[in-house]
Amino acid sequence: xxxxxxxxxxxxxxxxxxxxxxxxxxxxxxxxxxxxxxxxxxxxxxxxxxxxxxxxxxxxxxxxxxxxxxxxxxxxxxxxxxxxxxxxxxxxxxxxxxxxxxxxxxxxxxxxxxxxxxxxxxxxxxxxxxxxxxxxxxxxxxxxxxxxxxxxxxxxxxxxxxxxxxxxxxxxxxxxxxxxxxxxxxxxxxxxxxxxxxxxxxxxxxxxxxxxxxxxxxxxxxxxxxxxxxxxxxxxxxxxxxxxxxxxxxxxxxxxxxxxxxxxxxxxxxxxxxxxxxxxxxxxxxxxxxxxxxxxxxxxxxxxxxxxxxxxxxxxxxxxxxxxxxxxxxxxxxxxxxxxxxxxxxxxxxxxxxxxxxxxxxxxxxxxxxxxxxxxxxxxxxxxxxxxxxxxxxxxxxxxxxxxxxxxxxxxxxxxxxxxxxxxxxxxxxxxxxxxxxxxxxxxxxxxxxxxxxxxxxxxxxxxxxxxxxxxxxxxxxxxxxxxxxxxxxxxxxxxxxxxxxxxxxxxxxxxxxxxxxxxxxxxxxxxxxxxxxxxxxxxxxxxxxxxxx
Length: 550
Description:
This protein is of the alpha/beta class. The chain has helices at 35-45, 76-81, 113-123, 138-149, 152-199, 205-217, 219-234, 240-254, 259-288, 293-313, 318-384, 425-428, 431-448, 465-478, 491-494, 521-533, 539-549; strands at residues 2-10, 13-19, 24-28, 62-69, 89-96, 102-106, 109-111, 124-128, 391-403, 406-415, 423-424, 453-457, 484-487, 499-508, 511-518. This is DNA repair protein RecN.
């Protein structure tokens, strides 16, 4: 419940701080006194959009702060999931800065408006006559029936499964599209992959082939050069090897005369050995060279295949082609995996649909049982509110579509008088009738579910006398299990409250301000007497006020 409200620099309120109690609280005041300002401030606490024009002094910030006692609201999980400190005395604050920027806080933690709106659903419900049209909303009608049917837990299970079902359906549609696209590309991708597989490329192959091609393509020039080099090295009289051996023989004669000569001999000896090895290698290379036009043609064909595929796939190496081959293989394999994933998702969706159907049937069956109970209770309450011939025809039919709360389609039909045809609430019920129906609905709701603090904003418009007394009694009865506020112009309802607040305007110098005051017992008698007779209070009005209060 809301335990206190403070307002600073908002509309006609300069500064206001008021405490509230549980039970049934009344708020009265002249038209234009500022009741709508109080509701506007509470609207900001609910997360509604802020308006810079609401600031009284444009140079200072506006602050609205409300304290809520939430120990019985089971909201610890909500606070934990949203990473907010949980306090049994939870404080919600809204600030509107002179710049127009708005800020929101829950227990001093900054939050966005969406989170504030979600929390406020658990804390406070402001109901005005204009909102009685919500009764025509199918979601609200289902909420009423499901509260009586005790469907909440089943609907939560259903919604959890439905969320997974929708997610799987979305994934399946995405996979089916991917499969369709992949099938279109599969033939071409398979062709490209086979082309690379048949080429049987190996890493480093291009360099080896290019080297071999150069040898075979220039075999005559290479052989001629090798043979010529070998001849020069081994010419019998003037060859390099013959001359090196002569040099070695000459040095052997003087090697013992000095270390330098011996060193030269050793170096020439090494040179002779190395050069001998070189001449042998020249001969071996020459012997290995074979003029093989067929092999040259095969290598040329393989190289042309490499070059063509590199150009086709826009790479510059065999390694690049091997990567393309691996990618194509994966893409072809993915199609097989897609088929497996699609099959698994299809099975999962079918399994979830079976569970959803079972839960939807349970929800439907419970609603069928609850509808007569709701109809009887509404008729009983409305009979006391001056609608003795009211009838309801609540029709429920199970469809094929998975909706957010089951598979049911609902028609909530209403007839106010005998002999009149049933019609949809929004078309056949008057404003006064809708007010009384909504009050009856809230009274039933209060019994079957934990409603938040409930504020009735002049829903008594269009009723008076005994009906107003009955409405007041219903609200008072509701206040036994929840906190109720009623903003009213009717003394019959005002007299039913446990406490009574008055909204009024005052003038301070050239400034007009709205104020909210808790009335004493004597002040309350006078206020109700004024509601009965006007500004001039007669003795009979005072006596009537006392009678109503007693």
